[in-house]
Write a structure and sequence with these properties.
Length: about 230
């Protein structure tokens, strides 16, 4: 496993704050299994996920004229790559609550870049990296393809609001078959710095989350979202 790659960039400060917004069932699955779920790259809503920009695709097509397997490799590679997405932001994001939690019973994990790096437990069977996503114009800009991870670290500019950092697993070299995704071993206490409860949730829900976390043997700091603070006037 290689969590560092000279071609893949990350914010320099390991204390850069990152977030993951999810529902209670996925959160409990993370705590109970001590494994982080990663979605297969071609299962994301964005159909461009793991594909190339137009200038790069034209370049690859020329190379593939005499070597059709070259293009086929890139097409099938998406089925071998799994991704866990995290959002860079010093503060909570109202937009992220809206997009990634379906109702008022969602929550957010607060972590840091350094914690993510330390939380992922080395995997002998396949490669893993952590990298920051670049947002480009897919009609004009070039995505380099001298590193097989690059297609998964570029997205269209319309997704810039995500400010995404990704944990990426590539199982190409192993016999692992990805269906919807992959679960990887993580150190939960490293991964999670704080838990924030959905801003529109009731007090009983916060108390339930606290109780469940305690029963599972963890002692994270659990906060109600700052977005629902009392108005001062």
């Amino acid at each position: 496993m290689y969590l560092n790659n000279k071609n893949i960039t990350l914010p320099e400060d390991p204390n850069t704050v990152v977030w993951k917004y999810l529902d209670l069932s996925k959160f409990l699955d993370l705590l109970m299994s001590k494994k982080l779920f990663m979605s297969r790259s071609d299962k994301f809503e964005d159909q461009y996920e793991g594909t190339f920009s137009e200038p790069t695709y034209e370049e690859i097509k020329k190379i593939a004229e005499n070597n059709p397997e070259f293009l086929q490799y890139y097409k099938s590679h998406r089925e071998k790559v799994a991704i866990s997405s995290w959002h860079i932001n010093e503060y909570e994001s109202f937009a992220m609550w809206q997009i990634f939690t379906q109702n008022s019973e969602g929550l957010a994990i607060q972590s840091t870049i350094g914690r993510l790096q330390n939380a992922v437990i080395p995997e002998k069977k396949f490669d893993q990296f952590i990298g920051e996503v670049n947002y480009i114009d897919y009609k004009k800009e070039h995505i380099p393809f001298d590193d097989v991870f690059f297609p998964f670290l570029f997205k269209r500019k319309s997704f810039q609001y995500e400010r995404e950092v990704r944990i990426i697993s590539d199982v190409t070299q192993s016999n692992t078959k990805l269906n919807d995704g992959l679960k990887i071993n993580v150190d939960i206490n490293q991964l999670i710095e704080k838990i924030y409860i959905h801003p529109k949730s009731e007090n009983w829900y916060k108390n339930l989350v606290i109780q469940l976390v305690e029963q599972l043997g963890f002692d994270f700091t659990i906060e109600k979202s700052d977005l629902e603070s009392d108005i001062l006037i």
